[in-house]
Records
---
Amino acid sequence: MTPSRVPGPEVTRPAVSRRRFLGITAGVGLAAASARFDRGVGPLLVRAGDQPALPARPFTLGIASGDPLPDGVVLWTRLAPDPQAVGGGMPAPPVSVRWEVAHDEAFRRIVKRGAATAEPDAAHSVHVDARGLGAGRDYFYRFRVGDFESDIGRTRTAPAADASPSRARFAFASCQSYQDGYYGAHRHLAAEEDLAAVLWLGDYIYEGGVSPSAVRQHEGPEILDLEAYRRRYATYKSDSELQAAHLAHPWIVTWDDHEVDNNYADDLAQRDDQNPADFLARRAAAYRAWWEHQPVRLPAPTGPDYKIYRRSSFGDLLTVHTLDTRQYRTNQPCGSSVDIGVPCADVDAEDATLLGAEQRRWFFDGLIDSTARWDLVAQQVMMAPVSFAPEPANPVINLDQWDGYRHERGAVIKALAVEPRNPVVLTGDIHSSWVHDLDAETSDASGTRTETVATELVGTSISSEFPFSEVVTVAIGSQPTVKYFEGTRHGYVVGDLTRQELRADFRYVSSTATPDVVVETGASFVVEDRKPGAQEA
Ligand code: FE
Ligand code: CA
């Protein structure tokens, strides 16, 4: 094992994009040359005479698609002519938003069209579940309000349930602290990758206040109520690189802690001195704002309890199990409210959980029922045992990840080990890149090996900093289940799946200090069919 290994560069530049058509400059580009947006078809939920005039172009936060099915996809936008103003600068009444889906980018071959109502209590967001589409196909979509037209997005439906696709490509990414850097990774993800979906593993926003010394600043202090969470999403979603990544691909989105509060566990705030009742009110606001800003096929949340774990299938090749390891978890063990600590007996507590009983049952049932060649588990915190200390005899672990919840991890590993299956766990959270063998017995990080039953790929952050790079580089040398570690670079991972193998390419940007970057593939690993554990490609 050679940690921090960076093979020869495979440099590509977004400037030579195949997908340059996805211009993100407002109101220009191919939209101007395309067929006119239809004005006369589709139910007008708000009658034309009642439609309030908008003060400016309302598509400042972009458009998005997500949760692809064989016959449909969710189309999202939020109207916000003045994104940082209360209510996004929208007049109070509901507004009718027209949408179109076409085979072609010029919108000459329209497939579906309709109208949705942007309601003020949903921050004038819309979630259109566009159905009746063909399986496994690319589509283009756009929105219109009055004379204002959105940019044009590309999306793709999932293959038919009974299809046997020979290949699927996806990317996974997480952790885009706005103040830590720019999103050159998203620009490249949009311009250079041909994907069935982007799997977002959490930390879409960060809840903290302004860092004056950062490369760019949050709009205000730590966010606690609905209006503040909406403004924070408006800050993030105003980023043109992020908008480009949504324009180019459908996303399947889950959350981690920073969508609410760092290291929260169920109703327990960690960083802030909030009692559970106040924290649950905050959680309800945060969950509501999350739904308002994501292209998800989920009902609007009405309180602090909100089920987002779900499954996505891509024919018989791939099933994605998307988990939520925050909402139902028991508190971090060993009295710690920080991440890194010395393990105590609590890490083996039988009632400690990251999933909660109901989600765990749903997850295990789904694994048993799955007939897919590959089962991807899209989740948040690192599952493999890892000591962050250079001395193997004196382990120091991350109590916020599965190392703090070892009993439940054992049950998950058993569930993943059931044949015939290729389980691959996808992880975010830790702002660094790792590849792990998941062994049948994972009770310690001492180096004792047992049978490898699954693989874990941990993707680095889009922009968020990893503070422990040098410590960990020293520490992992003696940990043989760790196949790869890289702790200084940012980007995302592309997974290229065939029936024979999963190839994972770790894409790294040259910088987060500027959005103008080059990207190289810093490492590649392969997991072969029915052969758990990754090998260097
Ligand atoms: Fe993060
Ligand atoms: Ca955290």
Note: Residues 175, 203, 258, 429, 431, 464 surround fe (iii) ion (ligand 1) (CB under 6 Å).
---
Amino acid sequence: MTGLFPARRLQVLLPLPLQGVLDYLAPAEMPLRRGDFVSVPLSGRILQGVVWALDPPPSEVPENKLKQVLGRFELPALPESLLTFIDWVAAYTLSPPGAVLKMAISVPRAFQTPKMRTLYRLAVDNPDELTPARRKVWAAALGDMALSLKDWAELAGVGEGTLRGMREAGQLQPVEVAGDAPFPEPDLRLTAPVLSREQAEAARHFRDLVRAHRFRASLLEGVTGAGKTEVYFEAIHEALQQKNKDSPSQVLVLVPEIALTAQWLDRFRDRFGVAPVVWHSGLTPAQRRRAWWAVIRGQARVVVGARSALFLPFQNLMLVVVDEEHSPTYKQEDGVMYHGRDMAVVRAHQAACPVILASATPSLETLVNAESGKYDWLYLGERHGVAELPDMTAIDMRAHPPARGEWLSAPLREAVAETLKRGEQVLLYLNRRGYAPLTLCRACGHRLDCPHCSAWLVEHKKQGRLQCHHCGYSQHRPRNCPACGAEDRLIPWGPGVERVAEEVHGLFPEARLTVMASDELAGPGEIREMVESIARHEVDVIIGTQIVTKGYHFPDLTLVGVVDADLGLAGGDPRAAERTWQQLEQVAGRAGRAEKPGKVLFQTHMPDHPVIRALISGDRNAFLEQEAEEREHQRMPPYGRLAAVILSGTDHQAVLRLARHLAQGAPRSGDVMILGPAPAPLSYLRGRHRYRFLVKAGKTVNIQNVLKNWLFSTRLDGGVRVQVDIDPISFF
Ligand code: ADP
Ligand code: ZN
């Protein structure tokens, strides 16, 4: 075939976890650009891929062995900036580029152009002349609406035959509509709020950066309630006004959890008149396609999304914002393990536009960059308007121990009572879902654990079940101890939010309670309803996990009680203290955000712990300096480089064998240190045994090369999987 037609060689990347690109031939007359979508044969299948390189240097495969490209899709090519980004992420995370490409085009219906559809509009002059069934259709109609015959039938409760009859009689008139409705344009003429002096200064800085059309990273730090959102809205406004290319300017805003952004979306609508385009894993295939198409056409101007939005095919990115940049949810922990915040900086760099990292509690990584001048540093030190930062106090639980099986100390109970008496709202924070984190047998001491993981089962009383929070396994709460058979001797141990709610209900039976935890709320709609109902003060006491810390603004909320401030400080995570401080500072930031002053009480057994002291004194600098020193001493990020290598498999011996084998071949050099292998803290997960190495290296070491040389030459057997996590942030 190749002998008969002139052909050109090209490389195609397939969205598969293969190592790299594959060579193909294409007819010389096929108009191809880098980034084009093509279909190609591979081992008897036909697959869709992306042209990665045209006329590449010759490879080992002789031309007559190469297969032909079957066709090219009539789609816009993926923008160059996205292609470079995919290669960059793949190289940095040591992932196959195909696995990264898959994230960028995981739009099941991207390859179908939206179809035209025929809908029908009612055209009836005199309803009195209609048959009873047709009259039902007429009665169901509202205004000028156009529906499919099927939808009409459903709405009116008649058979489709009736509707076909009406179509024939001209009583229903066809209208052609395009499949996907366009997204409305943001309105740039709406009045902005009057900014305070420090807000205005920061906003001016960002407007200048946007107008400069080049990369620059900034930290926008501000106490909770300082109005960071209003400030970066000004930057978005500026970006939307820019006209530097044929394609309209676009903005990407990353948020930690899109389901928790109801209030943010409302504020966006107030400022820009329309909703932004949202992107997250919960979209339906049709919604995904609509958004993806709008982005690649440059028609989606502002996209707000989870970390996966980084891989959307923006044509003209003018600004990237990462809200709550310290949030650990930006890290993807499976498949391609990347940190959304770090990759956002890379994405902005490649798009030559500014990136704003916003937080009241910035990560140490970002603070170090700000301090060294690598990032600009904008600081808002005052809450907006008359609101003051809340008053923070520690309750020493050694001095005020609650009764057995209870969790609220006397001082916290009193504060709750007073707050409720004043008609204000209380938030009790405990980052533990369910009723009790552990169930044990009083007869033999047996603890109920997951059959697939090295983890306790968590009781969820409302469902009457015990659940594993790692793999999703669940079972009925048994009556008898599975170990010794004793009847009715299983007791819950320790508190979860449900149990605290039970205690509060016993103390304040009149108070309206709500539990806010991810498993209590079925999706964005329910979360929005709950947030709105709290804001309307239809709830007196909120008992919540970390999902309540997400930037919410509840004007009547004046007391925050942290049930266990020590939770999270234990364990081998080098960021345990930093993260606890961030979480508690954020939850504390929910108190007193309007006129009424707020108060925060931390229940702790360690009132002298640096984290607690930093919170109480408001002097976070001393704490962070100490954290930074400690990390520098340990040569941990951001002062050194770190990677985790996790080996896992169902055959324990095979995992162990590979671990020992790798240990023998481990690189040894002055600036690289390998710790392990050791059983991972979660040594058994979803039926797989897990061992872990930690690789520590100096800042200038190319840790990817070290890992490649070490790991990629090893043959894997016995179904053992090796996962590499560059810059790990969780250590499970
Ligand atoms: P942060 O994100 O820094 O915690 P927000 O942006 O949520 O703070 O602002 C806190 C509250 O103050 C919000 O209700 C916001 O609408 C309001 N606010 C902030 N700045 C202004 C301003 N300049 N004019 C009017 N309201 C403002
Ligand atoms: Zn499990």
Note: The first strand starts at residue 7 and ends at 13.
---
Amino acid sequence: MNMKIIQSPEEMQKQARLLIRSGISIGFVPTMGFLHEGHLSLIRIAKESADVAVVSIFVNPSQFGPNEDLDAYPRDFERDEKLCRDAGADFLFYPSVSTMYLNDHSIWVSEESLTGVLCGASRPGHFRGVCTIVAKLLNIVQPDVMVLGEKDAQQLRILRRMVRDLNCPATIIAAPTIREPDGLAMSSRNKYLTPDERAEAVCLFKSIEKVKELFANGERDAEKIKTAVRSVIEKTSGRVDYAEVVDNETLRLVQTLEKPVLVALAVKFSGARLIDNTVLG
Ligand code: AMP
């Protein structure tokens, strides 16, 4: 099937209804574009899990704070289009901001329990924007399956909660983080790093490797895990935005690693804020 590019939300919804009525299942990958191998791995999973794969590219203004990088966010539609086609996408949904947010848009979706920590704490309003846009995209694309990356661990947990609490008829599949050869998690924002920062940015991965090793050797004190993360980052020009150990389900801060925990960190370089995470236990 030739990949179709659709810009209008109404047209995308109409196509989705036609597919559903024909008994064709839909796999969906929401993205903000500037695609890399991480995104493409999600598209391949969507293709394996459903009859057709729909990819959306939408740089969602409502998930960016007033001092964040909305205008500078990297965009390259022509390149993305080719990558989607090569990865086997059947539909590329590429709406404009004005069709997704009408001038008097006034309904928002807020999560109220998992958002107070990690990226939710350092980016107020971010997950309200994420939940709102993903709820809208789910209503437009009406997928059977939505594929999301483990790289955005808090986003994944919040969207699982949204799908559960709002009875969205989609199953979420979590996809593993794809990394550069040196371990840096692939991200559209890596492009902002200076060459020196790019070399240093592997510190996020190194700190994760270090805490995995500590955990394997029996360390169960969250404070010691956090200190280990910070000590790796502090050797670089990166500034720790947060380094936390939280319950893997509730995202509540923990002191002792008894149940599975999420170790998550965000590091600010001059050009980009990067995140990474691992689950221990
Ligand atoms: P974004 O375009 O950054 O909004 O990301 C779109 C989707 O791709 C999200 O579900 C991300 O978690 C996922 N993603 C981003 N980077 C990676 C990566 N390195 N490996 C796997 N999935 C990723």
Note: The radius of gyration is 19 Å.
---
Amino acid sequence: MRIQVAIIGSGPSGLLLGQLLAKAGIETIIIERASKRHVLARVRAGVLEQGTVDLLDQAGVGGRLHLEGMRHDGVLLAFDGHSHRIDLQSLTGKTVTVYGQTEVTHDLVDAREAAGLTTIYEVENVSIHNIDRGSSYITFEKEGIEHRIDADFIAGCDGYHGASRSSVPAKAIRTFERVYPFGWLGILADIPPLNSELIYARHERGFALCSMRSATRSRYYIQCRSDERIEDWSDARFYDELRRRLPQEHADRLTIGPSFEKSVAPLRSFVAEPMRFGRLFLVGDAAHIVPPTGAKGLNLAASDVHYLFEALRLHYAGADDAALDAYSERALQRVWRAVRFSWSMTMMMHRFPDEGEFAAKIQNAELDYLVSSKAASTAFAENYVGLPY
Ligand code: APR
Ligand code: PHB
């Protein structure tokens, strides 16, 4: 088989790129390691920058998002027993939309199927070949039978643990990483959120986040040990710990109810440079990982997709390949700005047990300055709503 763009990975990066390319008349195929059921069941973050919303609209999949997504004009930062609202809209003129990544994935999968586009699920042993020559191709197995796809270009949208980045010779790639000494324990429950906007809380016992998926579905997180065992956390213990980390006015409003999803996620910052290797382009989590503190994971995948889609569109329109050649540099500039913001917010809001009391006082002072300075609040808001593409 020969295709214009072969996409490895059916997560948000691969699906959104595939949808945009298809609308531009560019042939794609997606090969995916997991089952369709697994892809659709993944629970991930839920805050979309306006740029991401615009891109989903451009891809023709914004319908449900505009019906069910919740526009948020502000976000609360809580510390020292009080919460402070950052008015994103008045400070930046922009807002964010709360809409689960699970829903984004569903919308993209549905659109791809409705367009009759091919996704091959449950593939194995994916290998990438000849990325430095004109005849690049992918091999993979499906039900024990080996297949080959020849492609003009290969989009490595296969996440942190995928085959794309690992197919690049070690001498051709540099990686930068920070692993944080804690994780996030998160639950989903069909209970009304305790607040209409997100609350990020810094507390001496640890970080907490109150988010949501709808007016009837809450998403809560608490900082935990990286090796925390879910079985050690009953719902009652989780809610008790969450309450203890929130200002009393919010803790008193917490509705509790049975969780239907509970998971622990480790936190890391990771960037691979460059993001292009001949005919292979790394996109999204395949090239970078951010701690979820700044809600940048999906939004960075979206900006990568924007840059790569525009470059491929120009290529197939007969323009020069300057945009393809500039992809890595353009994407990485926005990636590093978001990596910095996510790192900064993580360092400011989490408990670092080995850092001592001085560090805790500095964190409080940083938050105190942020919420009392229009300049500092504006800088925070600009990053949170998403820096320009
Ligand atoms: N072959 C084929 N598919 C693969 C392979 C492989 N070797 N390895 C991984 N995959 C698939 C995964 O099963 C997954 O469906 O690639 C997809 C990668 O999706 P994500 O990890 O979601 O990465 P991305 O699409 O870049 O989206 C980034 O998703 O994980 C969140 O927090 C992250 O919000 C961010 C967003
Ligand atoms: C979520 O709703 O899952 C969420 C929201 C904001 C974050 C991280 C996760 O920063």
Note: Residues 180-267+352-385 form a domain with the D-Amino Acid Oxidase; Chain A, domain 2 fold (CATH 3.30.9.10).
